[in-house]
Structures are given as C-alpha cells and as structure tokens.
Amino acid sequence: MKDAVASDFRPAERIESLGVSEILAIGARAAKLRATGRDIVSLGAGEPDFDTPDHIKRAAWEAMQRGETKYTALTGTAALKTAIIGKFERENGLTFEPSQIIASTGAKQVIYNAMMASLNPGDEVIIPTPYWVTYSDVVELCGGVPVLVPCAAEQGFRLGADQLREAITPRTRWLMLNSPSNPSGAAYAAEHLRPLLDVLLEAPHVWLMVDDMYEHIVYDGFRHVTPAALEPALKGRTLTINGVSKAYAMTGWRLGYGGGPEALVKAMSVIQSQSTSAPSSIAQAAAIAALDGPQDFLADRAEAFRLRRDLVVAALDAIPGLACRTPEGAFYAFAECDGVIGRRTPEGRILETDRDFCAWLMETADVAVVPGTAFGLPGHFRVSYATDTETLKTAMARIAAACRTLGEPA
Ligand code: PMP
C-alpha cells in the first residue's frame, strides 16, 4: 500500500553520488523473478554456502548462557583481542598490542572507520581496479577522492609498481590492497608485493590498507603473505584488516577486525563509539572460537572451492566470446565478455555493454551474475562460485546455451 501522505524526503548531498549496491540490486531482481516462479540461479552474492561450524555456534550459545549479552569494551573484549593478536602472530607473523586492535561490525565497518577517521575533503585513495565496490563508495562517503587504477586481465588484475608510482600525488593518503581480490580472485604473491612496497617506502606520506579477508581461500599451493610482515618498515603506516565472514562462513554474525598503529586505531574507535559502539557481544564470543578453534576444515573448504573454480573457469573460458583467467583465490571468477558485446540477441537487441549482457542473461537464461562495470572494469562480469557444483553446472550450461543464440557482431 502506498503512503497516503506524499514524502518530501531530501537525501543529504553526501550520498548523491552513491547508488544502491548493484550486487544487492541484482539479488533483489533475481528474488523478484524467482517469486514469479522462475528458476533463477544466483551467482551474484559473495558469501560461502557452507554453514557456520558447530563449535562456533556452541561458543555463542555458551556465551549467552554465561550472560555475555551486554555492551562490551568499545573496540572488543580483552579475550577477543587476545585471540586476534594470536591469529595475527601465528598466521601472519605480525605482532600487535591490544591498543592496536579494533573489532567492528564486519570488516566493512573497519574500512569505514578507517576512512572516516583519516580522510579530509579532497584526500586521495588509490584503488586498483577492479575493486570491491565498497572501497570507492566509502572513500566518497568520507569526502575523499578514489583514484582508480585499471589493472587488466593481461597484468593478472594486479597493480604494477609503475602504475602505483604514477598514481601517487602529494594528496594521496592511502593505497588499498586486497589479496585475494573480490571481484577478480587475483592474489599478490611476495614477488608481486615487493615492488609495490618499495614504491611505498619512497612515499612516506602514503598509508596502506590491506584487506586479507580471503587469505584462507587460496589454491594450488599459493602462499598468502601480508604486506606489513613482508616489509616491517611499513608496519607503522599499515592497517591490516581481516574478519571471520568468509573463512568461517560467518557473514551474518558481523564481526571483522583490524590491526594497525595505535593513533589510527584510536581515531577509528572515536568513529565507532558514535556509530555502532562495540560489535555484538555474542558474535565476539563466537569469533574467539573461530580463531582459536580447529582450523583443519579451512583446507577442506578451500579444496571444495578449488574444484568449483576449475569447473567454472573451464566452462566460461570454453564459451566463444568469453575468456576467463584462472584466479589464485577467493570464490569469484572474473570473465571478459568483450567478445559478446555488439552482438544481437534472438529478441533483436544489440548487447551494448557488460550490463546489457548480464541483464540479458538474467532475463533469458535465468542466471544472475554481476557486470564488471559495478567493480570499475567494464567488459567483464563476476561469477561467484560459492555454491554447489550441480548448480554451477546448470548455470554454466545455461550461459553457454544463451551465448550460442547470439548473432554475429552488428
Ligand atoms: N573485504 C572484501 C574484499 C569483501 O569481499 C568483503 C565482503 N563482501 C568484506 C571485506 C566485508 O566483509 P564483512 O563486513 O562481512 O566482514
């Protein structure tokens, strides 16, 4: 039912340039079509299909039983910070004091806190492209200027040292690095990081925001290394971000964390204190169990993701007009679709852009994927393969069949 009284709501200027996340919009469109009885396969969302392990759920229940249902210390309980410090030490070779750690409502909030706490109007943030949509939108929301540096498939979707050097100006505050990457799945090995870190050593005014969310989802023996460990001289200006959402299948618990210089963390905590306060006490208890508990299932899950990656990459790459690089990690394939742009659909429409292609796949092939434009790199689309193999096979067959119906380029 429509409201009887017309609303004259005027959004704030700061959100004028921002749209609703295209990924969420595509998910909503898929849900709408599904409600009409259509069998839409959704490869849009970025979340593991696995369930949160039982020992983690149990820890949450036990915390509730103990009465841990109240506000906690602003940046996280002492017990959670101990677990986070242990994780950074054990898995990443990074040492932190509790005052250098902040736990927040998802890694997304850690990023938001950091940008809110550090950016003044006009400050620049270098973002290798394709990027996770939140990066550029949060920078804009905080008054900063995203400096998008295109990193094509030919360069492995990875930022090069020369590109970084050229992008740095006196206004640069941050470089954002995400490895393995959402959306490309590309990861930076030590040999890829080293030249970038050397550039940063020459630019002492530039800080480094590292997003290691997918560090446990890597394939073929890839060795994840985090920049602040590889180059300790940068640790004093690096914020290393992680969380339990992806590795432990805990997206709904909303718990992420960061480790960095105390002054930065303190400023971030000011933002957090006036937005959300501490993250959920129950999620914090669950995260302790995730970080301190058994880790053996991580390798099993990564292997399950690898099989799916192989299936999806091979299927996409075999479709005339599409090409797909093999990603080193995360659960996304980022395929080029330039070869289908400009072609005519059986309905008589010319596919002008990656957005057209993805919309057409949804409407006629019942598969939801996200256009590269949403991640800053047109001519591509992202497939999330965090779903079972049968579903993936169905989706790949549908995309292949749809592409076969396309006419020659106009
Ligand atoms: N970083 C990256 C690269 C992501 O893909 C995501 C989730 N899509 C996040 C951070 C945020 O994760 P959360 O807020 O659930 O911790």
UniProtKB/TrEMBL annotation:
CDD domains in the cross-refs: AAT_like
GO molecular function terms listed in the Swiss-Prot or TrEMBL record: L-aspartate:2-oxoglutarate aminotransferase activity; pyridoxal phosphate binding
EC number annotated for this UniProt entry: 2.6.1.-
Keywords noted in UniProt: Aminotransferase, Plasmid, Pyridoxal phosphate, Transferase
Domain of life from the UniProt record: Bacteria
Reaction(s) catalysed by this chain's protein: L-aspartate + 2-oxoglutarate = oxaloacetate + L-glutamate
Record family assignment: Belongs to the class-I pyridoxal-phosphate-dependent aminotransferase family.
Pfam families noted in UniProt: Aminotran_1_2
UniProt entry tagged with the keyword Transferase: yes
Quaternary structure note: Homodimer.
Sequence ranges assigned to domain Aminotransferase class I/classII large in this UniProt record: 39-399
Signal peptide feature range: none
Gene Ontology biological-process annotations: amino acid metabolic process
UniProt protein name: Aminotransferase
InterPro entries noted in UniProt: Aminotransferase_I/II_large, AspAT/PAT-like, NHTrfase_class1_PyrdxlP-BS, PyrdxlP-dep_Trfase, PyrdxlP-dep_Trfase_major, PyrdxlP-dep_Trfase_small
Names of required cofactors: pyridoxal 5'-phosphate
